[in-house]
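Q: Hi! First time doing this. I have a protein sequence and I read that you can turn it into a structure. Is that right? Here it is:
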Amino acid sequence: MNDSSWGAPPQAGQAGQAGHAGQAGYWGTTARGPVQGAAPAGPAYDAPEAQQTRPMPIVPDVPAYGGDQDDDRGAARLSGPLFREQPPRARPYDTSQARPSEAAQQNPEPMHDSPQPAHPPQKKSAGRDLGAAIGVAVGLGVVIVASLFVVKAVFVGVVAVAVVVGLWELTKRLEERKGIKAPLVPLALGGAAMVVAGYARGAEGAWTAMALTSLAVLVWRMTEPPEGYLKDVTAGVFAAFYVPFLATFVAMMLTADDGPWRVLTFLLLTVVSDTGAYAVGWRFGTHKLAPRISPGKTREGLLGAVSFAMVAGALCMQFLIDDGTWWQGLLLGLAVAATATLGDLGESMIKRDLGIKDMGTLLPGHGGIMDRLDSLLPTAPVVWLLMVLFVGSG
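A: Yes, that's right. Below is the predicted 3D structure, encoded as structure tokens:
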């Protein structure tokens, strides 16, 4: 374009192109384009002012809510921040169709007069079905007491069955969680024989059966490939010592003249210790005893276990054991509380290593047999030894 064209007044067609070029962003645009036969441009398009004309920013044609129904001629409506003559019409928003995140943005703050849901204070939970736990405990107590005072051999059989089931639970969990295959057959046979040998031959018979059971584990595992042999036999020997050998001391307690009362004292003190720890710890426990091993145990619970066990020990030694005195019962109760707590922590360590909560599901409200033997097994040799020291082995 030459310089003379800047001062010439535009023609009709040129005016339409210059003044009605809506798609280029100039004023005067209509939706239907330039009108033919329009009058020449007015003073607004004179040459001196036309030179100062600058293109306006492009404003998109956004139809108002409702589309063409609001405009019979189909003309586009201009909207946006450049047009402030009338407040923009708010588009209705259906909150019932909105997603939760969008609804929260529409109403970021709740109404002051709207009722807020109340959160009732949470009560302390025991973590188990107490009704089932109490029922199972009473049933086991009846079976144990009946067999203990009727025929001693029957009680020995009950201990042997508990040992075999406990070995099955322990070896099963080891295989499931760690891939350790401790031989169950020699463990079960040797464990039952160990309990019987302890009752019949005392400590000598128990140690002999323990040695033979360990040897049977070593030989039995040789029938399989050598991979994992060391860890399998190590776990087998550990299981033989942990479950049947410690349980043998219960059978050895039974051999005394007042054997049933000694066993009953051992059972009562262990149960009372666990009950005292649970009751006091659940009600007053605030300081963790061993949070990395068992977060539920507290120092207050340990004090409850010691207090309950010492009182029960004094009463049992004074009234149940021949030639026993109350002060011996205090020492016995203290020892039982300590060993029962350590036994519980020991099995908790095993279960944490295995990544499980209970060793089994045989006893509703308790878990498995091993979950009930955890505090009894390490307590048995301590009670047997103290009974021998206090009142003899007869």
